[in-house]
Every structure is written in structure tokens, then in C-alpha cells.
Design goal:
- With 233 residues, the protein is α+β, with helices and mostly antiparallel strands.
- It has a single domain (6-231), classed as Pnp Oxidase, Chain A (Roll), CATH 2.30.110.10.
- The protein has helices spanning 6-10, 36-45, 82-87, 137-151, 164-168, 228-231; strands spanning 32-33, 48-55, 58-65, 67-69, 72-78, 97-111, 119-133, 170-176, 179-185, 203-206.
- Strands 1, 2, 3, 4, 5, 6, 7, 8, 9 and 10 form a ten-stranded antiparallel β-sheet that branches.
- It is globular.
- The termini are far apart.
- InterPro entries: Pyridox_Oxase-rel, Split_barrel_FMN-bd.
- This is Pyridoxamine 5'-phosphate oxidase family protein.
- It comes from Streptomyces rugosispiralis.
Amino acid sequence: MPAPDATAATNAPDNAYPPTDRTVPTRSRERASYDREVVHAILDEGYVCHLGFIRDGAPVVLPTLYGRVGERLYVHGSTGARPLRMAGRAGAEEPGLPVCLTVTHVDGLVLARSAFHHSINYRSVVVHGTAHPVTDPAERTAALDALVDHVVPGRAADSRPANTKELAATAVLRLDLEEVSAKLRTGGPSDDDEDLELPHWSGVVPVARTYGAPVPADDLAPDTPVPDYLTRL
């Protein structure tokens, strides 16, 4: 893939991530976006990311929770988890793990008259970079709070924080948002002109996320009220 124009990357506006040879798509370039607000909105709406890295010469992709604080993403896991151990391995001048992190939302099923033109409407973000272990206690605390609040905003302040034993068993990785792109598809099917008279239904089936009523734990005290941050969902 040819590298994007270096001048364009250097002159990227402050509200955009500069494109690189890894963030410029080879197809449907008009769907790519480097706008920070677009990227942040897609990341903030998701729950699960897919974290890709190389292990023993082969690619591995793991689903995991994440949280965003400004221009940083955080993922966490057991201190024994392989990507977390690899990121902090000894011997490297600066510990870190080259990764590719992705988040995707499906917004609609696009049904065309021909099988070839079926598609989905989606919003996605791809982040390339090096994930580093978080060792600073204050940053670790902020990162773990962000992970909890990413799932349900306001929950971190309404739960017991991790104790010393739990913190010792938990590792956190930081990935800076530097080499980033979003890609989006909207609209209806792109049927060929010669297929427009075919009798097959064509259009979009919207896909949306919904929340049910909170279900209390079996051992929850009956008089415990549902928090406002849950009713706001």
C-alpha cells in the first residue's frame, strides 16, 4: 500500500489523527475518518475491544474490556495473562508489546438484490501502537476506575475499590491514541442498475442496542434502591 502524502499527515488539523501507511485503507478510502471526536465517540460507545498481537510468531486476537481516559486506552487482566506478561518482559530497553486494537459497532444489515452487494452499516476504530504496562499507582487506580465507569458511568464511585491482594493480581496496559483511524458505512444497498427490476426485497434492517430492566442479585437486600446511573441507561 502506498504511504499517504507526508505533507498531508504533517498538516493534519489538531482535531484529527495524522494518517499513516497503516491507517489508510486500500479500499473505500472515502469511509475513513481521522476525526478525534468521531474516534472517541465510537470507542466510548463500545464495551469489548479485540486486542491483536504476535505470540511465538503467530497472530493472536483476544476480546477484552477497555476504558478510555483522554488520548489513552487501558485494558486489564490477570498478571499471568500472556499479553500482559509479554508487555512487561525483562530484557527490553523499554517494556512494551506491539498491538493492534479494534472496536466495531454494527448499525444495520444491508440487503441488496444481489448476494454480492449485501453488506452491513458499521462504525469501527483501529488503533496501532505499543502497549505498555502501567506501574504508577495513581495511574493504575485511575485506569481501573475508567474500566469500571466505561461499562456503567458512575459505577466506580458506587463500588468497593480493589484491595491490595486484588491489585497485586491485576495488570493494566496503556495504549496511547496516536496511530488511529475510524471507518464507517451508512446508507442503503448499492444495487447494480441491471438488478433494479429484480423482485427481491432490498433495504436496511437497523440494528440497535437496548437495555432491559436491572435484575437484582438473589442475595441483595430487598430495600436496596436501583441507582440513578442505572435508570439513566
